[in-house]
Write a structure and sequence with these properties.
With about 70 residues, the chain is mostly helical. It has one domain (about 5-60). The protein contains 2 helices and no strands. The longest helix has about 45 residues, at about 15-60. The N and C termini lie far apart (about 80 Å). The model has no long low-confidence stretch (mean pLDDT about 80).
């Protein structure tokens, strides 16, 4: 029997505790990956928001830093 088959045989023949540990470890890894993906998404949303605000401020000010009128 290969080591993988031996491991699977041991997992499924045990009382279920080891199987639950493996399932919970998989869920923990999945949750950790989901948190990383969400943090990256929020980071990029914040960067886009900052750049949009910066662009708006630059657009509504002229070279000397004065506000331009709405219809100038």
């Amino acid at each position: 029997m290969t080591p993988l088959m031996t491991t699977l045989h041991y997992v499924f023949q045990s009382d279920g505790t080891l199987l639950w540990i493996i399932i919970l470890m998989g869920a923990a890894i999945f949750a950790f990956a989901a948190v990383i993906i969400c943090v990256r998404a929020v980071k990029y949303m914040i960067i886009e928001l900052y750049e949009g605000i910066k662009f708006t401020i630059e657009y509504w000010r002229d070279k000397d830093g004065r506000k331009r009128g709405m219809y100038d």
